[in-house]
Amino acid sequence: MRVPNSVVLPVGTHVDCCREEEVEEKRRDIVAKITAMLAERRSNLAHFIDNLEGSKEPEFYVDQWERLKEMESCMLTILNLVAVDCTDPRDLKKLEATILEHVKNEDLFPEVVRVLPPIYRQVETAIVDIAQSEEMADHGMMDLQYLLSKLSQRQDLANLDQELLQDILRYLHRVGLVMWYEEIKHLESTVFLQPTFLITMFKVSVGMGTVSSAALLG
Known about the structure:
By secondary structure, this protein is mainly α.
């Protein structure tokens, strides 16, 4: 919901555990819940924005207002739910074909036909090399300026400047090769070259929080 113009393909699994009429019933229920969730989100955002605009000193909340307006503009496209039996290879093939069909749809993904400059591929290859090198720490975190200096040491990237690197990082962030949270002040100068480590860290943090809550409740 925080990514502009997101496209979401709901997938229902365990079809083999349901009767045919149950599958359709659950499909309708899921679609209804998604619709309600999106409506509630729009309502909540509008409420928060109205509160900020109606405050006595709205100038103190400009950053929050801008962030909420940005979130309000993030539109979601919800595709038709695909119901699959994960034990049936034919269903998995059907899901794969459906995903590929949607990805190639220029109306859904207008950038699918965009031809990237060669330097995008060169930077991507160089970042993969750096992430897999022995000198790279396990956490995969690297300062943005240091990354720029490392990349600039390569002959084919000697003229790479920070503005172009940031454009390329935005693209690599969208495709999931790196994580770069430029909108978060404390993280804008840090690039996560190994997103899997970040995901693992989140899982551990959530797990520890769950254990702590259980201990308190106990």
